Amino acid sequence: xxxxxxxxxxxxxxxxxxxxxxxxxxxxxxxxxxxxxxxxxxxxxxxxxxxxxxxxxxxxxxxxxxxxxxxxxxxxxxxxxxxxxxxxxxxxxxxxxxxxxxxxxxxxxxxxxxxxxxxxxxxxxxxxxxxxxxxxxxxxxxxxxxxxxxxxxxxxxxxxxxxxxxxxxxxxxxxxxxxxxxxxxxxxxxxxxxxxxxxxxxxxxxxxxxxxxxxxxxxxxxxxxxxxxxxxxxxxxxxxxxxxxxxxxxxxxxxxxxxxxxxxxxxxxxxxxxxxxxxxxxxxxxxxxxxxxxxxxxxxxxxxxxxxxxxxxxxxxxxxxxxxxxxxxxxxxxxxxxxxxxxxxxxxxxxxxxxxxxxxxxxxxxxxxxxxxxxxxxxxxxxxxxxxxxxxxxxxxxxxxxxxxxxxxxxxxxxxxxxxxxxxxxxxxxxxxxxxxxxxxxxxxxxxxxxxxxxxxxxxxxxxxxxxx
Length: 469
Hints:
Elements: E1 2-8, H1 36-42, E2 53-57, H2 61-71, E3 76-80, H3 86-97, E4 105-110, E5 114-115, H4 118-133, E6 137-142, E7 153-160, E8 163-170, H5 175-184, E9 187-197, H6 198-208, H7 210-221, E10 224-226, E11 229-231, H8 234-239, H9 245-248, E12 256-261, E13 265-266, H10 271-275, E14 286-288, E15 291-297, E16 300-303, E17 308-314, E18 316-320, E19 325-329, H11 336-345, E20 356-359, E21 362-370, E22 373-380, E23 388-390, E24 394-402, E25 405-409, E26 412-416, E27 421-424, E28 430-433, E29 440-448, E30 457-460
Parallel strand pairs: 1-2, 1-4, 2-3, 3-11, 6-12, 14-16, 15-17, 16-18
Antiparallel strand pairs: 4-9, 5-13, 6-9, 7-8, 7-9, 8-12, 10-11, 18-19, 20-21, 21-22, 22-29, 23-30, 24-27, 24-29, 25-26, 25-28
Helix pairs in contact: 3-6, 3-7, 6-7
């Protein structure tokens, strides 16, 4: 049996401002109507009947759940209290997979990759299966299509049926070294995807990283259910050393193998990688949204909320969102992460907070703000129910523009329909619900001395959230 394990812990900092800490790239619809996570789940169809195990950060739990709901996809949602890299995440998945007494093959897939040829991907998995059955820890090496400095490489060793012994991992090379690696024909891109038997991986971890395995065992044994989620034991998991499976295990394992993968793969790790998934126009430009390009060549221009016009430029990346604009040369695409790091160090909120904030009941987006006021567009999905709460520093005005709101205000309960409004005074106990069959949309105007999301005293919440979630 193949047990899919989807790793949803990536941050995607090189895709800022599209990707944020609160809305990382795996949840974005960058290349199709499905998010990268949803595409990852979709390519499992026909490969295995086992429900996937989805490993992710606890702050993204409602994003994961909502995207599964959109697909009507069953899955086990395992929450990490903080990121500890891939080796511990896979260890916890292996331990959980063995709790029933089974010992499945784990197909470990990052949630933020694109694969254009699903049939070729599934064929490579079938080639890897006998090797994993024989006890090899198998990774998939992407057949290079060009010299690439944004990917690590894998050196192929002696041939095996369906693949090769894994000889070595090569860090991301400079341009000259990348050409040498590709021209040799003996190196593949490191995809970060694996097929391995749960017990084989745990045996290697016990030999190579006993402290890590001990912490993961304790984190799994102390895990507890929270609504539809399984939370790993927080104290034990935080004690776990952070390391990738490559460094912690694969580099030191004598039974590591690599199977070639030629399936139009990309990790969408930068805007240059995103570029490869779109078809440019006659001038070499790739665009999305409301754009107007004049005398512009070989540029990527994305507009999310307003017209973006360019004139007399070339080899640029221009990305506009409601709160940020990025302009950089294409040859600086890999350095965007350094820009994001400097913004974070300066205390800016833009690397973390997303313009549209997802909640289990729906979403909200800031429209305008100033001294002592803030305006939001709120969408509550059918059946969505906000917590019963009060605010100590702000009042709110709600104007319904679509649907019907069920409002609780202190001791009363009433409906507010389209083109009607209501007022929530400071300190009043209140709740907003959508009991209808269409999304509820409203404009919320907040006013007061403090407008932070943590000014919420929750008295009842069906989603069991913290104060600022």
